Amino acid sequence: MSNLKMPTAFAAICAGLFFLVLVVLPQSAFAASGLMPHRAVYAMNLIGSADGSDIASVKGRLVLEWQGSACEGFVTSQRIVNRMGSKQGNDFVSDFRVNSWESADGDAFTFSMVHYINGNSAEEISGEVENGVVAFTKPEKTSLALPAGTLFPTEHIRQMLDAAKAGKKIITADLFDGSDTEHYFKTTTFIGSGGIGAPGDDEAEPGASLANVKYWPLQISYFDPSDISGLPDFEISSRFYENGVSTGLVMDYGDLAIGARLISLEPLPVPEC
Predict the structure, then answer these.
(1) Which among 53, 92, 97, 216 counts the fewest CB atoms within 10 Å?
(2) Arithmetic mean of pLDDT, 215-223
(3) Closest by Cα among 247, 235, 158, 171 to 209
(4) How far is it, in rounded angstroms, from Cα 269 to Cα 20?
């Protein structure tokens, strides 16, 4: 399981998770954008496991906090803890802890991710990006040059929202989110027709505050630029709201699909410069 990517881009959507990422604006811009600093908790479960996967069950939580300002930058913290069962009958606990900071101008990015299995560190990635070059400090000191125009998670979310509001149905972007030491991702986002309303079914109660907020169905495919197969490493789909909240998350790794259902949503204070 240490090879699963929980992207900080969500978009997010973190993902990542991630990795899932959300944008926080200063007071003056916040009123115009409607984006909401918040803490969201999701219940995770197994949706499907193909014959090629060893995973038979998934049960856990995803906790995401999104806050910051245009003065101090944007901060995202995530923790994803799951008890997973193998088809051989063995259970183990997977614990991802992800933190990132992105400068308001999108020129700098710092990141850290630790993956524990049964309490033992299985993978650790950390580093920073400046002037288009990633300087990793863990697992070892290496560097990675990014193509011109590569986005970090916050700017990626901004562009997806702008595209959705403009009625676009597909956008592409190069993205670096700190979840891989060997490459950035090429992403393709498909945007469905927008609507207004809270989620239904078992997300209805925690999502009640979204009743009058516009949303778009999104599907983001993440590609390794060196892979010539044309198949994505993984895909994330969700119902993405204009205020930055996501519901109905599905992370699809091809032979394994994991869902994340919103169970708690708490607005956070809007920081001032």
Answers:
(1) 92
(2) 97
(3) 247
(4) 20
Examine residue 139 and say whether the peptide bond preceding it is cis (omega within 30 degrees of 0): yes
Q: Which of 233, 239, 236, 237 is nearest to 255 (CA)?
A: 233
CA atoms within 13 A on the CB side of 93: 10
Q: Are 22 and 64 in contact (CB under 8 A)?
A: yes
Pick from 258, 256, 200: nearest CA to 44: 258
Q: Are 184 and 9 in contact (CB under 8 A)?
A: no
Task: Report pLDDT digits (tens) over 143-184.
Answer: 999 999 999 987 888 889 899 999 999 999 999 999 899 999
Residue 209 has pLDDT above 80, yes or no: yes
Quote the radius of gyration of the chain (alpha carbons, Å): 18
Q: How far is CA 6 from CA 36, 152, 177, 266, 270, in A?
A: 22, 15, 10, 22, 27
Q: What's the angle, vertex CA 237, arms to CA 232 and CA 240, rounded to 5?
A: 140
**In this structure, are residues 37 and 61 in contact, taking their beta carbons and an 8 Å threshold?**
no
Beta bridge partner(s), residue 84: 58, 92
Is the bond into 19 cis (omega within 30 degrees of 0)? Answer: yes
